Amino acid sequence: MGLFSSKKDGLIAIDISATGVKLLELSEVRSGYALQSMAVVPLPRDAIVENTVIDSMAVSQALLDAVEAAKPSARRVVISVSGNAVIIKVIQVPTTTEFDLESQIDFEADKHVPYDIDDVYLDFQILGPDPEEPDQMDVVLVACKREIVDDYQLVLSEAGLETKCVDCAVFALENAAEIMGILDDDVVVESFEEDEGQAIALVNIGANLVNVNIIKNGQMAFVRDQFYGGENLTEEIQKEHGLSYQAAEDLKKTSFSDVHPEAVERFYVGLTSELVRSLDFYAANHGESPVRQIYLMGGGALIPDIATEIEQRLGINAEVVNPFDKIKVNKKKFDMDELNRMGAMMMVPVGLAVRSFDA
Ligand SMILES: Nc1ncnc2c1ncn2[C@@H]1O[C@H](COP(=O)(O)OP(=O)(O)OP(=O)(O)O)[C@@H](O)[C@H]1O
Ligand SMILES: [Mg+2]
Questions:
Q1: Do domains 1-85+150-180+322-359 and 181-320 have the same CATH topology?
Q2: CA atoms of 47 and 58, how far apart (whole Å)
Q3: 303 lines ligand 1 (CB under 6 A)
Q4: Cβ neighbourhood burial of 20 (10 Å; 0-12, 13-18, 19+)
Q5: Cα–Cα distances in angstroms (integers) from residue 356 to residues 4, 172, 350, in the given order
Q6: What is the 70 CA–ligand 1 centroid distance (Å)?
Q7: Quick check: CB of 108 below 6 Å from ligand 1?
Q8: Which residues, in sequence order, are bridge partners of residue 294?
């Protein structure tokens, strides 16, 4: 299996998470990308807990249902990992070639990864020379727990799918953001004063995880997965309204205006403090380029008015993104309104699918 490798024609993206399975397939067209097939299938609660597949029957059935619904043209897949399955660090190593680093990466990783190196899949990407130390270079190191990837691979194979590539959710977000043009320098510059640092944050609010990727001058500067998400709001609603989990989920998604403001307030206080923590970590090393713009995505970004709330609470511009703004869609085959409604939630699968075309 070509873990994190780049040449992978004809792959479909599959994002397996606690709440469901998302499948998405793109094709390359002259203007960029076109949507080929897509399906979102919910998983029963606790089928996957903290990345561990508990109910493999339920997960492979959901995968089969997704394939049945989407009818993708391929059975080879690129999947994502996040949260406690993966450690991502920007490390400094003595300047060398990619080829040489390949043979030294175990040694370097051993200093930074708190697991036995034999228990993880490793990958790296050279960012460039370290601005402070000329004989060192910055490298993104990725270590992914083998047992988690192997478990996913097994349920995928039970559904007739072959795992060809594994990517990190935070990297997928960056790739999706790139095709949307939100990483382009001129777009970023527009809203800033000249000579200000140009940092933006991609914030993916899932059910249990918030993936944060801060990009400074077009390059990844900080990544972090935090344990917080839409489910915290569901729990606040359960408490405030005395509802079951499912009833609270339904209320949140279909009648948000009926949700007690206290529950919403507590959710935002928690979310803001998580985000501030990441922004502070980032600022400790990159104080000269503060984050000027937050792009919100993930199912949590579908909460009505979330961008305004974040903007007011953090004092940073915020906007919810929709990848289908930039993807060609056959309106006879897909319901455009539905795609636009849930677009923000599909950023990870879009980014995974995009990467499968990298040369
Ligand atoms: N219309 C909506 N309004 C508010 N919240 C929503 C809406 N649709 C989905 N959500 C919430 O978004 C979350 C799911 O988002 P997403 O699919 O991005 O997460 P996930 O990938 O399953 O989870 P994770 O990334 O944490 O493993 C759930 O908490 C869900 O309740
Ligand atoms: Mg997710």
A1: yes
A2: 7
A3: yes
A4: buried
A5: 10, 11, 10
A6: 20
A7: no
A8: 201, 318
Which among 25, 6, 18 is positioned nearest to 346, based on CA atoms? 25
Among protein residues, the one with the nearest Cα to ligand 1's atom 10 is 299
Lateral strand order in the sheet of 317-320: 219-226, 210-216, 199-205, 291-297, 317-320
CA distances from 119 to 101, 127, 225 (A): 20, 25, 21
Ligand lying nearest the CA atom of residue 300: 1
Between the CA of 98 and the centroid of ligand 2 the distance, in Å, is 31
Q: How far apart are CA 105 and CA 316, in angstroms?
A: 38
Phi, psi of 129 (to 5 degrees): -60, 145
User: Nearest C-alpha to atom 27 of ligand 1 is from which residue?
Assistant: 17
Amino acid in the structure at residue 98: E
Reference 172, options 358, 349, 357; nearest CA is 349
Instruction: Kindly report the number of other CB atoms within 10 A of residue 69's CB atom.
Output: 14
pTM value? 0.92
Kindly list the domain boundaries of the chain, sorted by start residue: 1-85+150-180+322-359, 181-320
Superfamily of domain 1-85+150-180+322-359: ATPase, nucleotide binding domain (3.30.420.40)
pLDDT for the residue numbered 6: 45
Q: How far apart are CA 239 and CA 231, in angstroms?
A: 12
Q: Which CATH architecture has domain 181-320?
A: 2-Layer Sandwich (3.30)
Q: What is the residue-level pLDDT of the chain in tens, covering all 359 positions?
A: 445 544 445 899 999 998 999 999 999 999 899 999 999 999 999 999 988 899 999 999 999 999 999 999 999 999 999 988 899 988 999 999 999 999 999 999 999 999 999 999 998 888 888 878 889 998 999 999 999 999 999 999 999 999 999 999 999 999 999 999 988 754 454 555 555 567 999 999 999 999 999 999 888 889 999 999 999 999 999 999 999 999 999 999 999 999 999 999 999 999 999 999 999 999 998 888 899 999 999 999 999 999 999 999 999 999 999 999 999 999 999 999 999 999 999 999 999 999 877 53
Q: Identify the pLDDT of residue 184.
A: 76
**Closest ligand relative to 21 C-alpha:** 1
